[in-house]
Each structure stands twice: as C-alpha cells, then as structure tokens.
Specification:
Length: 168
C-alpha cells in the first residue's frame, strides 16, 4: 500500500534526488523553462512552486530580518555551479601570476532572479506558477518528455489580453 507516501523516488538515493531537483529548479528559474521527463517534471513542479512562494513571502515581509530569512530558505532550493570564470593576470616584478576569479554561481543568479523578477511577477497570483507541456517520446529510450515552464504571471499582460477580447 502507498498510504501517506508523498513523492516519487525516481530510482535515486535521497541525496541524488535532492541534487537532481535542485539542479532542475535552478535551471527553471534561470532559463524560464526546462525539458525533462514527465516523472521528473511532476516532481519539479511543487518543488519550484515552493521556492516562488518563499520569494513572494520575502517580498511582502514586514521586517528586513523576515525577508532575509525567506531569502535564505529559498537559497536551499538551488544548486550552484560556476556560470562564468574570469582569468586575470597579475604581473609581479619577476613573473606573471594567473588568478582565477570565480564568477557568480548558478544558485546566486537564480536567487537574484527569483527575488528581483519572478517574485514580483507572481505577487498577485495565488499559485500555479508553472506549466507542464508533454512533448512526446525521446527517440533514444522512448521515455516521455515534458516541458516545464513558468506561466506568464504579470498582471499587465493579462490586462492586455482582456482588452483585446473586449475589443473583438
């Protein structure tokens, strides 16, 4: 029986599953959409929507401490890798040193985009920030593919659509 069993295991250990969902969530927030299998997409949807809800709560928090708390909680939903690395050369008297300066990680970019762009975009929306569109089967192994994307949540766009329908 599957009483009170909440999530799919996706044939992975707990650590691997968490890392997979964090990577997918980071890609979804940074890129706006991600193509994956249907099972992973169905697990990603509530995971990403919780992060967006934390961003909304952080934007409407009554104190800066609460806002920071929500930002730190949302940071746990993202996995960072290097997005860009700069190489700088420092010349000493005798030789040049090559110094790698790390760029922003994917988690930092995703967190910034989440709180600066996506949170305000969905501030009036009570939920349902993502959409899953089934794409068909993958040629190699025949697994079902799906596109997970953020819905258009800005109130300005919905008002424009309503005006167009009223004019017709």
């Amino acid at each position: 029986m599957r009483h009170r069993v909440a999530h799919r295991k996706l044939r992975r250990t707990t650590e691997h599953r968490k890392a997979l969902l964090r990577n997918l969530c980071t890609s979804l927030i940074v890129e706006g959409k991600v193509v994956t299998t249907v099972a992973k997409a169905k697990e990603l949807r509530p995971f990403a929507e919780r992060a967006i809800t934390l961003a909304k709560r952080g934007l409407t928090a009554d104190s800066p401490e609460r806002s920071l708390s929500f930002r730190r909680q949302a940071a746990t939903y993202f996995m960072g890798g290097r997005s860009e690395t700069r190489v700088t050369f420092i010349s000493d008297k005798k030789k040049q040193k090559r110094v790698l300066e790390p760029g922003r990680t994917g988690a930092v970019l995703a967190l910034k985009k989440l709180f600066d762009e996506i949170g305000p975009r969905f501030i009036e929306r009570p939920g349902g920030y993502t959409r899953i569109v089934k794409l068909g089967w993958r040629k190699g192994d025949g697994s079902d593919l799906a596109l997970v994307e953020l819905v258009e949540g800005s109130p300005e766009k919905t008002q424009k659509k309503e005006e167009r329908t009223e004019k017709k």
